[in-house]
């Protein structure tokens, strides 16, 4: 008898959840391995703006930007994440669809401006569904890679891009950060010994269309949502990138604007579920599914 994934209203077999046809029918408004999805326009960045961005990421550790048009159907993406949550599956399964990867592709000018023309996407990505009605929270305070992710001059060798898919407020679980220039142990081998002052913590509320990029030495976390925020979850996603002239932080490194096959996406999502299980409770049935995904062959 095949292993079953318990859900609020039904049970889906692991075999079913590995089938591309199931996922295409699950969200017919989205795409899987479409040859067009990576062709979304990528806005250029003027020289002075790029210099300002580089300065912020080096001195404060992060910056906030905005793309007025992402060429991504936000409503369709958030609908899929909500439905995944309803099935008892993790939001990271949304990365089966092209539209999630399109978000990272459109940040290419920003990431290239910070890391140079030869950079790669790390096999480290995630999506969140933080429900205020359940008083859920984002991930606990952490540094993505720590001080070793900085070059000798303080510039980043790897960065994280975090994208809110719904409004992120101080009540529904927005990001918080300790600016690098207010963090005494930032960029040092002692960066696991936190000595910042609480008044220096900075809230990062945001709207859909905004994005944040921070270097991977900066301390940050997702906050605890309050039921006073209403019943709309805070949804978001994140990607990580690194220069290719340094050792890979994780394998396999990905072409930043390449089209991943369905099979590769399945295996990579399984990898995410397993490698981030220290950040959230992982039920046995999802661990079993992730193991199958890691070793997936058509």
Model description:
This protein has 298 residues and is of the alpha+beta class. It has one domain: Jelly Rolls (Sandwich), CATH 2.60.120. The chain has 8 helices and 11 strands. The strands form 3 sheets. The protein has a 5-stranded antiparallel sheet. Helix 7 crosses helix 8 (284-294). The chain is globular and about 50 Å long.
In brief:
With 298 residues, the protein is α+β, with helices and mostly antiparallel strands. The chain contains eight helices and eleven strands.
Task: Record the SSE blueprint.
Layout: E1 4-6, E2 11-13, H1 14-17, H2 20-26, H3 47-59, E3 62-66, H4 74-86, H5 98-106, H6 108-115, E4 119-130, E5 142-143, E6 158-164, E7 175-178, E8 202-204, E9 210-215, E10 219-222, E11 234-243, H7 262-275, H8 284-294
Antiparallel strand pairs: 1-2, 3-9, 4-11, 5-10, 6-9, 6-11, 7-8, 7-10
Helix pairs in contact: 7-8
> Could you tell me the number of beta strands?
11
What number of structural domains do the residues give?
1
> In this structure, how is the largest beta sheet organized?
5 strands, antiparallel
Query: Helix- and strand-based class?
Result: alpha+beta
CATH superfamily placement: q2cbj1_9rhob like domain
Mean pLDDT: 91
Q: Which percent range describes the beta-strand content?
A: 15-25%
What's the SSE pattern?
Answer: EEHHHEHHHEEEEEEEEHH
> Helicity range of the residues?
25-40%
């Amino acid at each position: 008898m095949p292993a079953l994934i318990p859900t609020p209203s039904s049970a889906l077999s692991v075999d079913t959840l590995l089938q591309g046809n199931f996922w295409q029918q699950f969200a017919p408004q989205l795409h899987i391995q479409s040859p067009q999805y990576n062709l979304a326009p990528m806005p250029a960045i003027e020289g002075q703006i790029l210099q300002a961005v580089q300065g912020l990421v080096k001195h404060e550790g992060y910056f906030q930007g905005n793309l007025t048009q992402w060429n991504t159907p936000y409503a369709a993406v958030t609908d899929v994440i909500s439905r995944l949550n309803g099935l008892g599956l993790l939001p990271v399964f949304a990365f089966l669809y092209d539209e999630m990867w399109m978000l990272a592709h459109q940040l290419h000018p920003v990431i290239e401006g910070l890391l140079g023309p030869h950079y790669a996407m790390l096999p480290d990505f995630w999506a969140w569904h933080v429900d205020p009605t359940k008083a859920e929270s984002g991930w606990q305070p952490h540094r993505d890679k720590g001080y070793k992710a900085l070059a000798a001059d303080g510039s980043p060798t790897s960065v994280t891009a975090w994208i809110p898919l719904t409004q992120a407020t101080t009540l529904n679980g927005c990001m918080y950060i300790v600016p690098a220039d207010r963090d005494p142990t930032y960029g040092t081998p002692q960066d696991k010994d936190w000595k910042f002052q609480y008044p220096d913590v900075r809230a990062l509320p945001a709207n859909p269309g905004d994005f944040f990029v921070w270097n991977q030495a900066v301390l940050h976390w997702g906050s605890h949502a309050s039921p006073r925020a209403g019943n709309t979850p805070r949804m978001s996603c994140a990607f990580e990138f690194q220069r290719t002239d340094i050792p890979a932080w994780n394998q396999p490194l990905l072409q930043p604007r390449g089209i991943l096959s369905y099979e590769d996406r399945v295996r990579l999502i399984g990898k995410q579920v397993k490698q981030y299980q220290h950040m959230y409770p992982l039920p046995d049935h999802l661990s079993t599914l992730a193991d199958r995904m890691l070793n997936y062959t058509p």
